[in-house]
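Workshop exercise sheet. Pairs work together: one partner reads the sequence aloud, the other fills in the structure field after running the prediction. Swap roles for the next sheet.
Pair: D.N. / O.F.
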Amino acid sequence: MSRSSASMLLDPAALGEVGRSDASLRRFLHGLPGVDQVGADARAAALSTRSVKTTAKAFAIDLAISMIDLTTLEGADTPGKVRSLCAKALRPDPHDPSVPRTAAVCVYNDLVGLAKAALGDSGVKVAAVAAAFPSGRASLAVKLADTRDAVLQGADEIDMVIDRGAFLSGRYLEIFEEIAAVKQVCHEDGATAHLKVILETGELQTYDNVRRASWLAMLAGADFIKTSTGKISPAATLPVTLVMLEACRDWHDITGELIGMKPAGGIRTTKDAMKYLVLVNETVGTEWLTPDLFRLGASSLLNDLLLQRQKMATGRYSGPDYVTVD
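Structure field:
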């Protein structure tokens, strides 16, 4: 969608009326211009060929490290594993204190308190998955209780996932109201948790649906929109990220509000990370090149970034035992 076509959809004052009924949401979301799939694929492919070298690459590696949400979301997670992950977030390379800290550590609810204690006042955020992650299928009461538990333990960020069955069935108002209710819990009793809304784009079938889901989440109060849980394939892709970034850009053009974006899952190499940073720069601009507005959900990426960083500093690659295995 071009900036001009987005701006012609409605004026900022009208946005508050969109979520009042299923009919108004359907009319708005299905009135969005369709995504040119061939064009989106070609644009993402063209930008992925841009090279980032020398000084710019060194800057981009550190920037990418500072944007990572280190994540462990396994049934076998232990307190020791979470403490180790927090230590890595604080000091990604024990041999080099100049390496920046990561943006956040993401865990299940029951480990939020432990992560908060380990990270202290470092500035590294604690994110908790909530609202029936990763399926998004539970009653609203259960989703709110799940979120409230994480917020009460001190989570700085809540990563909720939408019910894709509800979305694909066209129950837009149900999703809107759930996101809005979860957002309200994020601010109960003086809490200030940021809300990241996961679309699980691998199950949304079309780029048009990705655009609609992005707008639905922002209309309902998302602070960030996020591609994936990491549990479904495909997870993040460059074309899907492009569509979501365009939605963030158009939202800003209309409202003046900055909404963050997070691709998650399948981003494993420094080369991958550079492609996403170029995509951000060329689509929404340098204002989004900050951990406050762009994150990378890719824990395995950190090790490759550290190896590439060390290669640039010394001129040689270290062995795989240079970095820890999470």
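Discussion prompt: The domain at 3-65+127-284 is CATH 3.20.20.70 (TIM Barrel). What would you look at next?
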